[in-house]
Amino acid sequence: MLVIDAHLALPETELDERFLRADGPGGQHVNRTESAVELRFDVARSPTLPDAVRERLLARRDRRLNADGVLVIQARRFRDQARNREDARERLATIVRAALVEPKRRVATRPTRAARERRLAGKQQRSRIKRLRTRPERDA
């Protein structure tokens, strides 16, 4: 069971782990052990996730989310499998926790009259400065 928060936990049956050989330092050891972890979680078909959380996860522009709605996390930061496995699970929990928070709705506002006047005064000031940078006209 992967605990996300007090109200949500993902059962082990929904998590698919695959172990593969990691690249990087480690000498001969890295060529013989499968220490990297690929954790897959099917966001689109998960019965555990609330609908709002599922929609927020699927709406994310995340390259780890494939076209089928499966979130794929690869962990190969550490040299031993147990630490990589824990790292992948923690990263998944962080992603799901972020989707639990409902984003605030933006309230459309208009600039005040004073703000518009300040903006226009600033534009006039910049225009004057740039006009002074030009060559003076010669009297004919």
Structure description:
This protein has 140 residues and is α+β, with helices and mostly antiparallel strands. It has a single domain (2-100), classed as Double Stranded RNA Binding Domain, CATH 3.30.160.20. The chain is built from 4 helices and 5 strands, in the order E-E-E-H-E-H-E-H-H. The strands form 2 sheets. A 3-stranded antiparallel sheet has the order 3-4-5, with helices on one face. The protein is elongated, with a radius of gyration of 27 Å.
Rough outline: elongated
Q: Which structural class matches the secondary elements?
A: alpha+beta
What pattern of helices and strands is seen along the backbone? Answer: EEEHEHEHH
Radius of gyration: 27 Å
Our count of helices gives 4
Give the DSSP E fraction (strand runs of 2 or more residues): 15-25%
Low-confidence stretches: none
Care to count the β-strands?
A: 5
Describe the strand arrangement of the main beta sheet, using strand numbers.
Answer: 3-4-5
CA(first)-CA(last) distance? 88 Å
- Overall mean pLDDT stands at 89
Count of domains: 1
The main pleated sheet reads as: 3 strands, antiparallel
Q: Mind telling me which CATH architecture this is?
A: 2-Layer Sandwich
Family: Belongs to the prokaryotic/mitochondrial release factor family.
GO biological process, one term: rescue of stalled ribosome
Protein name: Prokaryotic-type class I peptide chain release factors domain-containing protein
Organism: Aerosticca soli
